[in-house]
Amino acid sequence: MINRIRTLTILQLKNKKNKKAKTKTSTTVSIVLQVAVCFLMIIGLYFLLDYIKQLAILPIDSNFFLFMLFITQAIGVLTCVFGLANFLYLSKDNTVIFSLPASPSEIFISKLAVFYITEFKKNLFFLLPFFIAFGIVLKLNFLFYIFVAFMIFLLPFLPVLIGAIFSLPLMYIKKLFKKYSILKIITILLIAGLVMWGIIYLVQIIPRPLRILAIYQKFFIFIKDTIISINQFSTIYQVVANIMLNNNIFINILIFLAIFISLVGVCIGIAFAYFKIASQSFEYATKTKKHKNNEPIKNTFWVFVKKEIILNIRNAETFASHILFVVSLPVLLYVVNEIISAIDTNLNGLAIAFAVNIFIGLMFLMTINTLSASAITSEGSEFGLIKTAPSETYKICYAKLMVNFFISLLGIISSIIVLAISTKFNFISILLIFLTFLLVNTAHMFWSLQLDLLKPRLLEYASSGSLRDNKNVGTSLLIGMGISIVFALVGFFCFQGMNLINMLKLPVIAGLFFAVRLYLFQLNIKVYFNRIQM
Amino acid sequence: MEQLTIILLSGIIFLALFLLCKKYESKTNLIIKLFTLGLIVLFSLRIMFADSFDKILALETNLFSKPMTAFLAILRWLTLSSILITMLSPFVKITVYKNITAFISIFFAVLNIIFFKQNVIAFVGNVNVGFFNYRSIMFMLEMSLLLGISAFQLFLLIKNKLLPNKKQIGLMFAVFGAVIISCFPLSTFQVLFGVFGGALEDFNLAHRLFLYATILAIALLFIIFRKQDENSKKAMLLTLATSSLILFCYDWNFFSFTYANLPLHLCNTAVFLIFIAFAFNLRSVYYFTYFVNVIGSVFAMLFPNTTASLFSYSGIHFWFTHAYVLILPILAMMLGLYERPTIRYMRNSIYIFSAYFVAMVIANAWINTFTPVDYFFLYGDAVSQYLSFLETIRLNYQWLINISNTLYKVYWLYDILIYIGYIGLMFVIWGVYKIYYSVEDHYKELFVLQKIDKLNIAKLKKQLGDITQPINKEGIDMIKITNFSKTYGMNKHKAVDNFNLEVKDGEVFGFLGHNGAGKSTLIKCMVGIQSITDGKIEVCGYDVEKQPLQAKLQIGYVSDNHAVYENLTGREYINYVADLFMVSKEDREERLNKYLKMFQLEEAIDNQIKSYSHGMKQKLVVISALIHNPKVWILDEPLTGLDPSSAYQIKECMREHANNGNIVFFSSHVIEVVEKICDRIAIIQKGELKGVFNLKKLKDNNVDLEDLYLSFVENQKDKNQEELKKVQEKALKLQEGV
Fold first, then answer.
1. Do B191 and B312 meet the contact criterion of CB atoms below 8 Å apart?
2. DSSP reduced 3-state for B583
3. What are the tens digits of pLDDT across the range B453-491?
4. Does residue B308 carry a pLDDT above 60?
5. Is residue A291 within 8 angstroms of chain B, CB to CB?
6. Cα distances (Å, whole numbers) of residue A357 to A333, A362, A484, A523, B97
7. A387·B529 Cβ contact <8 A
8. Are the beta carbons of B563 and A380 separated by less than 8 Å?
9. Are strands B663-668 and B406-410 parallel, antiparallel or unpaired?
10. Measured between CB atoms, which of B561, B568, B582 is closest to A310?
11. Taking CA atoms, what residue in A is nearest to B606?
């Protein structure tokens, strides 16, 4: 049994990482690098904690220890709940794994083992260095480090076991969402709305004028109180912290064991029912309203655009994320400007405010361009349909940009309206921001699609159906960040003194950037689109 | 008196050159090089001696009148440029330098001889300079060498009948003009105009403009020289490296030596290293400057430790030498004179840098015991003024060593952090270079491909006039594959090799082969999904590669993976395809109704495709392929996974489509299917066409298709090999009549 679980775990780990075969040297190098990273983390955290302790802005004590432990583990629990809901019940490879000669409970345990290893690794790179750095800063005794050695192996069990339990109801919720996609959209928007309302509420209570130095003490007292309040919900992690920090060790160990055994017990129960739950079909025939309209569209560009629009609207998650994007950007800029407006600013401050708006606005705007950075990849095996379509390549490419462009444009317009209402910027400044956003973002959109055009991952997407590991998306985001920083700096210099001629330089530079990217995009689609291989 | 001496000396030099070159004709260049070395030594000494002329501001001096001062300033500038070219002329392999030496240097040598007295007064700052003053003697020797060498160069050109033509004369003045811009005495602008302009600091306008100009200079030089031959590129780099060396050394004064003036700062060493790298073609030295010095100069230019204006004496010394240190290594790489660095060069650069770093730590600790120096900014607060936390570290972590009552001080933690930071920056710049290489490679490839595409279109236009017309008018009713080959990526193995085939209208043509034989590859190339490595594919007379749009309009394609947009409904998908193929409303409705009925999809057509079964999707793909009634219907393994009735319907459809005068081309590895519906078949094995057979003929001659197929497949243990061979031979004979 153990051997089978081991084999299954290794199989799934390899499949998850999809790593190339490693040589002995590369493995050694990788281990040395990981140890070095761990070591550097310890040094870094030591200096940080020591610095905080010396400044006395936050007490480095048991409360802080519990807070850090709780926060890191809470994140782990959330990751496990959502991750396991997919990995245990909705994973594509379930059909293969269930056909292997292993019992469902063995498969269940192997899947938990995969998550345990992931959690363990995460703890190794943050929690372990934190524990050691904390111990050194507070000069804790040897017993603390012994418990660290035990806990680093025991702690990852908790999020995995909790995740295994809570992933079950989550799976049923997902199932419901799959059946009624409108429910999913409503829920997402509801949660997003609540979060935004919370943020706006917080912004409203900012004192005006905001004098950071004056509220410095208040702020840290608030943080201390918040830490204590959050710690009240830490439940089992309070027990873990007590054990590690030498408070009522024996009774706490007993409580810990009792909780641990209970969690294992519940998971064993789930393991027995695992096959029955996981093998349920999730496929539902999605029926749409019947319409027998076969009206032709004469312009092939609009044929592609129509297809793109339908595909984006039909996918509930994508559609909800588009709406969220359009709503979030203005809210974000509103929040930023509310904070800035609470601070007394001079002309230079206005230039900084402008630069901050450019930076945040562009950064956020460009995240939606990941749509373009995966536009070709996300065609997967359907890309063959595009390749066989008798149409000019530029029409296909520009159609692929249209949805992205339209959502960006909505985001920009709504943001500009919010900026006009909530900031001290005059009409010219607002107009210049609009032009800059539009030109720079569109240029980045071209660049993002170009990235995907040059290195599409059609086969990977066709086989996995996932865009998670698409490097083009990461590169697009990275480039977006670089562009935002550059244009924020340019904006800062151009808006110093609020001189109109100086200010006009910003859209001119943005225009040049747009022209260069458009030219390069044109060149690339002309040459490479027809050369994409499947 | 001095003039006569110079003429006499230059005559002797000319004569010596003439006699030596006559005796050792094959070693002419070496002899000239040796004499030029003498000029180099004298010139180097001259610029490193004090020069009173450099102290003049805006022509204000009591040594000369204002016009004479201005004339002298310009003469010295132009002389410097001509001497620079004369010095380099025997060491570079380009004619234009020899022409400049022969025609321009000789002119300036004569001018300097005429104004000899004024020149020497300018050096010493005193009107009473005697014949035997050491500056006078040195300048006499220098001018004699310049005149002698340039006159001999002129003599050689005349003797060898190599006098420049009009174009070469133009080029000569253009190159000399460029050298004038690149090299000038540090004092020229100050003497002529005084100190003007403000400091270049804190990214003010002047600072920004200079930074832009530096980047522009790289781009400009790259554009000018990218298509020049290697010798010209090398000559340009060596000239600029020498210019920078001259600009740097101009500031040195033999009689006012200070330790602080030693060229031990990283960028100071760079001026020498770059010159050495280019002059002696030392690769390791070059890569050191490429990784280490470029970073140093970038930081020096971004955060200058000078407040001098750009065209002041010290401004030129600082700004121009740093700009050269940045421009030259990058330019040399961009122009392809050095191969892209491997990690070995990076490692070597780190070793050399480490040795330099340790040496500077020791030098700072030692020399500061008797005079203040701050080599590579490891001792003072030049760096920590920008990063305040470093100042605390610098002052708090000192290592004091007492040797013989002398206290040596090392800021150990500060130095270590600077070292780590610099090494980190070297890796950052390595990353930046890597990005640049990939961009450069990409666009190089792009422009080559673009050129090929343009040439193809131009050729096609020339051939057809209207490129929407079929390229092969005789082939409008057929598929014609000629010498087709396909390889994937960099793989040398051919997935399909030298494939030839013709399929005519009215035929159902079967394409038979084992898994991985190359069937799908060929089909994907036919429909435009894959590129063609070699050969030509024509569909209805249209070249698939050159006229993709026209060719695709003739094709209906059923893929092997039944890929469809799952979030569309069946009807939306069919309409999407019909719109692309510009099918009228009437036609699409008629055909859609017919096929929906035939494939029993009427109920499901308005559902999203994701709810369809495998077979339903396959039927939908078949409908979409037929919605525009294509001339050529291509199917890749169409019957896989279909139920018997659906398979029957598709087979019927194929037959009907061929009977209507169209071509049906399909691949399969199911022999029974092929046998039943095909008129002709082709067998492909490991990318090679084994034969094209008429099924009726095979049947009439009792050739079993299964046996024939197996005869082409290796290692058929269960079958009698000899029997299979006979079947194969019989079939191949029949093939001749096909």
1. no
2. coil
3. 899 889 888 888 887 888 888 888 899 999 999 988 777
4. yes
5. yes
6. 7, 8, 10, 32, 56
7. yes
8. yes
9. unpaired
10. B568
11. A290
* pLDDT tens-digit readout, A415-463: 899 888 887 788 888 899 999 999 999 999 999 999 999 999 888 777 7
State both tokens at A278. 């996981």
Q: CA of A297: which chain B residue's CA is closest?
A: B579
Query: What is the identity of the amino acid at A276?
Result: K
- What residue spans of A279-388 are helical by DSSP H? 300-314, 316-342, 347-367, 370-373, 383-387
pLDDT on residue A378:
86
CA R_g for chain B: 40
B527, B549, B579 ranked by CB distance to A303: nearest:
B579
- A276 in reach of chain B (CB within 8 A): no
- The region that residue A146 occupies, defined by phi over 0 for left and psi between -120 and 50 for alpha, beta otherwise, is alpha
Helix (H) or strand (E) holding B450: helix B412-464
Q: Are B527 and A387 within 8 A, CB to CB?
A: yes
pLDDT in tens, B491-522: 778 888 889 999 988 889 998 888 888 888 99
Q: Which residues of A265-294 are buried (b: 16+ CB within 10 A; e: fewer)?
A: eebeebbeebbeebeeeeeeebeeeeeeeb
What's the confidence (pLDDT) of residue B213?
95
For chain A, the straight-line distance linking the first and the last C-alpha, in angstroms and rounded, comes to 42
CA distance B105 to B152: 11
B-chain residues within 8 Å CB-CB of A286?
607-608, 610-611
Alpha carbons B123 and B121: distance in angstroms, whole number: 5
CA dihedral angle for residue B223, residue B228, residue B233, residue B236, rounded to 10 degrees:
-70
| Subunit contact A285:B611, Cβ cutoff 8 A | yes
| Mutation target among A282, A294, A306 for the B interface, most CBs of B within 10 A | A294
> Is pLDDT at A214 greater than 50 in this prediction?
yes
Provide the token pair at B516: 């991985």
Picking from A286, A310, A390, the nearest residue to B549 by CB comes out as A390
Kindly state whether A288 is in contact with chain B, defined as any CB-CB distance less than 8 angstroms.
yes
Question: Is residue A453 within 8 Å of A379, Cβ to Cβ?
Answer: no
CA-to-CA separations, B264 to A28, B241, B359, in angstroms, rounded: 40, 18, 10
**Are residues A285 and B607, on separate chains, in Cβ contact within 8 Å?**
yes
Q: What pairing do the DSSP bridges indicate for beta strands B508-513 and B680-685?
A: parallel
A101 touches chain B (CB under 8 A): no
Which among B446, B567, B578 has CB closest to A527? Answer: B446
Specify the 3-state DSSP secondary structure of A261. Answer: helix
Q: Rounded to an integer, what distance in angstroms lies between the CA atom of residue B481 and that of residue B647? A: 29
Interface check for A317 against chain B (CB to CB < 8 A): the answer is no
Q: Are B246 and B183 in contact (CB under 8 A)?
A: yes
Nearest CB to B583; choose among A296, A385, A524:
A296
Q: Which neighbouring-strand residues pair with B508? A: B664
User: Is the complex ipTM more than 0.85?
Assistant: no
- Enumerate the residues of chain B whose CB falls inside 8 A of the CB of residue A289: 606
Which residues of A fall within a CB distance of 8 Å from B588? 294, 296
Q: Which of B89, B120, B117, B118 is nearest to B103 (CA)?
A: B89
Q: Report how many helices (DSSP H) and strands (DSSP E) chain A contains, helices first.
A: 22, 0
Asked if the Cβ–Cβ distance from B549 to A382 is below 8 Å, we say no
Whole-structure pTM value:
0.78
**Across the interface, which of B450, B579, B607 has its CB nearest the CB of A526?**
B450
B453: chain A residues, CB-CB within 8 Å: 526-527
Mark residue B544 as left, alpha or beta (left: phi above 0; alpha: psi -120 to 50; beta: remaining): alpha
Residue pair A286/B611 in contact by the 8 Å Cβ criterion: yes
